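Budget justification aside, the reviewers requested a transparent look at the raw inputs and outputs of the sequence design task funded under Objective 1. We therefore reproduce one unedited record. The lines immediately below are the structure tokens for a 434-residue chain.
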């Protein structure tokens, strides 16, 4: 609409129609979404150890298989969620995702068997899919191209704050409840129920506060047509294809850190005589260090991305990530001093890929089919999580606890080579500067 005012704050130029309340809500969404969805993986070792008493030598493969099972739902539903948001708007889909996730968190610690874990994880995955796809889509919706890298840097900063709050705060809930007199099983359940209530509150805030992008011009398109456009555009556009591959790598990166880092440190703690709750509390600050470094580096990477060819920026991000994951795979003692430089580099690499690939996607995503493109981007990311969870779980149990990190380091460097090739043959102008 031509009469919409254009909001500008410093170097950020927002989409006409976005106001201060919408902006504040979006930053809260970036914080709250990552805080909520990262909690499941951090608590998985606790559930297996304290509630279901799964033997340690089975936990790696079970963790990978549960994540794989969740990602099957994500892959099946991500494109659908993107198309639905084009029809009815982002806020209703976002809020509904949080409601379903809240229900999943409420019943997950009540599982008595591994089969029940799978069934509840699948139910939770429906909500987590809607939440994750809407976060990515809304981030793209809010900003003009000239500021895209810096905007993704800022939202990644708030993502990092959310993960930091989870790792330093929410992971301590079982210990807090245990200290109040509850047994380990009830302490874990109360922790999940606390997070369930938080999901409901966040969903309500997002429903009323998010920007409602215009959807009426796309209501005439069929679901099948819209979903197929994401594939067709990726085939025709090598830069978009690299962004799609970046989704595979970026989500795989995040999954390996979010899943196997916790499992690695929890098992190391148990080996040293700690309880699962104590190991979780000790792992929290180390995981927090990774996210703190990712959080601080995100705006810097955003600034760099807006001043480079987007494929060059993506190649740089993949190089940093490859170095970080390989460094982490070589750490002999996760509680020793070598963990700190590896965690710093890993945090920088993780966010470098997210920011640079996100900016590349936003640059190449057609406005008409943005929900479909972001949905497919999410589906490919889901395949990345599925593959890294499944393979990583068996590498963790069969090769070593740091093997999944080495795998991701190699994959990042392979995609870097592909991005440099596309850059040399299908380059585009440096993004417009403010």
């Amino acid at each position: 609409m031509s009469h919409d005012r254009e909001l500008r704050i410093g170097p950020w130029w927002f989409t006409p129609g976005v106001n201060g309340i919408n902006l504040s809500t979006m930053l809260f969404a970036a914080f709250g979404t990552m805080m909520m969805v990262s909690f499941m993986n951090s608590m998985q070792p606790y559930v297996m150890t304290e509630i279901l008493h799964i033997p340690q030598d089975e936990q790696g493969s079970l963790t990978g298989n549960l994540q794989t099972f969740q990602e099957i739902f994500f892959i099946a539903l991500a494109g659908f969620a993107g198309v639905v948001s084009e029809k009815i708007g982002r806020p209703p889909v976002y809020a509904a995702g949080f409601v379903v996730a809240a229900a999943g968190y409420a019943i997950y610690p009540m599982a008595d068997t591994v089969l029940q874990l799978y069934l509840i994880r699948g139910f939770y995955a429906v909500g987590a899919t809607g939440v994750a796809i809407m976060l990515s889509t809304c981030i793209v919706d809010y900003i003009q191209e000239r500021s895209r890298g810096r905007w993704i840097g800022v939202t990644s900063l708030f993502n990092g704050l959310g993960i930091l709050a989870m790792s330093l705060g929410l992971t301590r809930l079982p210990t807090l409840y245990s200290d109040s007199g509850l047994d380990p099983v009830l302490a874990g359940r109360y922790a999940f129920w606390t997070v369930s209530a938080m999901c409901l509150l966040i969903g309500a805030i997002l429903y009323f506060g998010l920007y409602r992008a215009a959807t009426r011009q796309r209501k005439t398109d069929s679901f099948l047509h819209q979903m197929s456009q994401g594939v067709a555009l990726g085939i025709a556009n090598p830069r978009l294809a690299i962004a799609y591959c970046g989704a595979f790598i970026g989500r795989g990166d995040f999954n390996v850190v979010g899943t196997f880092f916790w499992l690695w440190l929890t098992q190391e703690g148990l080996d040293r005589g700690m309880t699962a709750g104590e190991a979780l509390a000790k792992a929290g600050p180390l995981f927090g260090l990774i996210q703190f470094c990712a959080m601080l580096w995100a705006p810097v990477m955003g600034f760099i991305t807006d001043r480079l060819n987007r494929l060059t920026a993506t190649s740089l991000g993949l190089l940093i990530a490859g170095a970080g994951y390989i460094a982490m795979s070589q750490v002999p003692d996760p509680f020793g001093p070598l963990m700190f430089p590896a965690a710093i580099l890993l945090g920088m690499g993780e966010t470098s890929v997210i920011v640079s690939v996100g900016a590349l996607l936003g640059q190449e995503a057609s406005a008409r089919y943005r929900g479909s493109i972001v949905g497919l981007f999410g589906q490919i990311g889901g395949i990345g999580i599925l593959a890294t969870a499944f393979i990583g779980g068996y590498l963790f149990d069969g090769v070593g606890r740091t093997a999944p990190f080495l795998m991701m380091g190699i994959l990042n460097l392979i995609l870097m080579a592909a991005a440099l090739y596309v850059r040399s043959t299908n380059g585009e102008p440096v993004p417009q500067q403010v």
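The chain has a mean pLDDT of 86. The CA atoms of residues 144 and 163 lie 27 Å apart. Computational costs for records of this kind are itemized in the attached budget.
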